[in-house]
Specification:
2 domains; mainly alpha; binds zinc ion; two-stranded antiparallel ribbon
């Protein structure tokens, strides 16, 4: 058994243990549906998904309680750290999958922005476009700091004005429109 697998099983064992503690705490309170009838174990078996085979043994049973009082017999389900409602996937697997997906998306976003920055530096800043803009604005524009350096170079009364001015310059340089007349 690898070290990682061992650590993983430790977590599942701990979740199982915590579920047992929750079960005991709920059982101690007695039935809430009558005058505090004694709660007996009424566990049911579950077939879990999303955990390794070696960990399945910690997910075989959903702890449940049942009122022992005749005429009540209400089932009480203690909270669970292992199961998320009726879902067949272990709660820990659902959380891990969602967090991984979010991290993946963030990573993809970061990669996309890196590609954009590379475009500013290599394509936009590498050709005659930047030279043309430098000439037009008559100020130095740091190629490695594009597009921030360009934004700092344009004039305008408000940030929105400067942004629009930048977009106009970029549009003009990237795809020059023939001037009238
Ligand atoms: Zn009861």
């Amino acid at each position: 058994m690898s070290h990682e697998k061992g650590a993983e099983d430790d977590i599942f064992a701990r979740l199982h243990e915590l579920d047992l503690e929750l079960l005991v705490a709920v059982q101690r309170r007695g039935c809430r549906d009558c005058c505090g009838g004694r709660l007996d174990r009424a566990d049911f078996s579950r077939k879990v998904r999303g955990v390794s085979e070696s960990a399945e043994r910690y997910f075989e049973t959903r702890f449940a309680l049942c009122c022992s009082r005749e005429g009540c017999r209400r089932r009480t389900l203690p909270p669970s750290l292992r199961f998320l409602g009726r879902r067949v996937f272990a709660a820990v697997a659902i959380v891990a999958a969602c967090v991984a997906e979010q991290a993946h998306r963030r990573w993809q976003e970061a990669r996309r922005i890196r590609r954009w920055l590379a475009w500013w530096r290599e394509d936009f800043g590498g050709g005659p476009r930047l030279l043309e803009l430098r000439g037009r604005l008559a100020v130095p524009i740091d190629r490695d700091a594009l597009p921030g350096s360009l934004l700092a170079a344009v004039q305008g009364p408000t940030p929105a004005d400067r942004l629009v001015r930048l977009l106009a310059l970029v549009a003009d340089v990237v795809a020059p429109i023939p001037h009238e007349g």
